[in-house]
From TrEMBL:
Keywords: Repeat, TPR repeat. Pfam families: TPR_2, TPR_6. TPR repeats lie at residues 244-277. The keyword Amino-acid biosynthesis does not apply. InterPro entries: TPR-like_helical_dom_sf, TPR_2, TPR_rpt. This is Tetratricopeptide repeat protein. The lineage of its organism: Bacteria, Deltaproteobacteria, Bradymonadales, Lujinxingiaceae, Lujinxingia. It comes from the Bacteria.
Length: 494
């Protein structure tokens, strides 16, 4: 669900952008100091985690009275920051008083000064500069928008380290986490999100940070923790969008753990919840997390199908083959639901996975346990008949790969989705070889007879190359033996 939030702080208004980044949107000057009204910017609707949303244009309102700030914060050696109360003489008749040397009480006022940056070179102070947290925050935002994530992170870190009591601390923690995600420093990002959850447990941002923490931990391969975080989120008072997302993210982590049935339950919960939701809350069928839920359901059934191996005796093999066929159909049905939504990422992925579904089904049947006692001739006949019997499955895989390749090239919009095109093209060529290449047929038979894995070994490039060379040498030797001596001499001379 879209959200917006504005947090006010001395001298600045800040808001979140549609990609989740907090940004300065207006200068806020106190009435006593500047005599100007407060200016609060408006924030666009925010979908903090949807990677498809476009970045907004930068809007920063500047006061004409604002002095330019020339900063070397990002590049200078930051050696010391000094912050403290500074006593200032005042004609104000209110406030604290002190006695001077003559015993006369003089009214005073106290305010908190900005921290001071002191640059030191060779042990000598060469420059001092007062830090303005607003300026540091604004420069961090500008760096982030320009995709200078390391510079943005450095500025956000200054606020985190030295302005811990300012109202910029929460958005700086959050934005620094986003910058670390862009730098693929997942563990460090997770630490910042955990700090938000611990220090601001009742804020809306603790929910946002929990989802970002889940993503960072998923990227770091810590899937068990992702499951726990998403389950704990389910105990909170989440809106419909967040609840759906929590189910889907939990399902994704369970897929990585190969907990197929639990993953199926998580994805099905997301779909069922959305189906029952009121009309004004229900997510569209082609929305990111609903399409992903259909894809996840397909992957759950696909994983269960792959785990089921066909072994003797015949009665068990027949039963397992029927179960495998049912799982194949369930996986295909859900992949097709995702495919039909024409989502620029998940539909392309689903098309590829349907092709893989048929390919895996073919390889599983081809790798079924062979009865003992067959001689070499009988084994050859067995494989020939088996290939002919299940050829229709391979032809179906080829058809799906070819159609998905055309669809993908029409709707793909990102480099991540383009990877599915490359995978589809690769497996399309492999399936053509498996269907019609005699050398691939022989290698598949050898792997099955040796008890190997067709998935891991059949298209292993070094092994396949060695087999190709071996076959070529064998053909050359056979040709040489069958040739008459004059022909052999002629070939050697040439």
């Amino acid at each position: 669900m879209a959200r917006s939030r504005v947090v006010t702080a001395p001298f600045i208004a800040i808001a979140r952008t549609p990609v989740g980044l907090w940004r300065p949107v207006g200068l806020v000057m106190s009435l006593e100091l500047a005599g100007q009204p407060e200016l609060f910017g408006t924030s666009p609707l925010n979908d903090r985690r949807d990677p498809v949303r476009r970045r907004p244009a930068l809007h920063v309102l500047r006061s004409p009275a604002r002095a330019a700030w020339v900063s070397g914060v990002r590049r200078a050696a930051l050696l010391l920051l000094v912050a403290g109360g500074v006593a200032m003489s005042s004609a104000c008749t209110t406030g604290a008083t002190r006695s001077d040397e003559a015993g006369v009480e003089t009214p005073t006022s106290t305010f908190e000064a900005d921290p001071t940056l002191i640059r030191v070179r060779d042990g000598e102070v060469i420059d001092t500069e007062s830090l303005d947290s607003k300026e540091v925050f604004e420069n961090a935002y500008l760096d982030f928008q320009a995709r200078r994530y390391e510079d943005a992170l450095q500025n956000y870190q200054i606020i985190i380290d030295y302005f811990a009591d300012s109202r910029f601390i929460l958005p700086s923690l959050y934005n620094a986490g986003l910058a670390l995600e862009h730098l693929e420093q997942w563990e460090d990002a997770a630490l910042l999100y955990r700090r938000i959850i611990d220090d601001f447990p009742e804020s809306e941002e603790s929910i946002n940070a929990s989802f970002r923490l889940g993503k960072s931990l998923h990227e770091a391969g810590r899937y068990e923790e992702v499951v726990e975080i998403m389950l704990s989120l389910g105990l909170r008072d989440l809106n419909h969008f967040d609840t759906v997302e929590a189910h889907v993210r939990r399902g994704n982590a369970l897929l990585e753990l190969e907990e197929w049935s639990e993953a199926e339950d998580a994805f099905q919960a997301a779909v069922d919840l959305n189906r029952r939701a009121p009309g004004d809350e229900k997510l569209l069928e082609n929305s990111h997390f609903i399409v992903q839920a259909y894809f996840g359901l397909g992957a759950s059934f696909h994983g269960r199908m792959d785990e089921l191996k066909l072994v003797l005796p015949t009665e068990r093999m027949t039963e397992d083959l029927n179960t495998k066929a049912d799982l194949h159909q369930s996986a295909q049905a859900n992949y097709l639901r995702a495919l039909r939504q024409h989502h620029p990422y998940w539909s392309v992925a689903a098309g590829y996975k349907i092709g893989r579904l048929y390919q895996d089904f073919y390889l599983d049947i081809f790798a079924a346990e062979i009865p003992d006692g067959l001689n070499e001739e009988q084994i050859t006949i067995y494989f020939e008949e088996l290939r002919e019997t299940i050829r229709v499955v391979m032809e179906r895989a080829l058809s799906v790969y070819e159609r998905n390749l055309g669809l993908a090239r029409r709707i793909v919009q990102s480099p991540d989705a383009a990877a599915w095109i490359d995978a589809t093209a690769l497996h399309l060529e492999r399936m053509r070889a498996l269907l019609d290449d005699p050398m691939v047929h022989r290698r598949a038979e050898q792997i099955v007879l040796a008890g190997g894995s067709l998935e891991e070994e059949l298209f292993d490039v070094p092994a396949f190359a060695r087999e190709h060379v071996r076959q070529a040498l064998a053909k050359a030797r056979d040709a040489a033996r069958e040739a008459s001596p004059p022909e052999v001499a002629l070939h050697e001379a040439n």
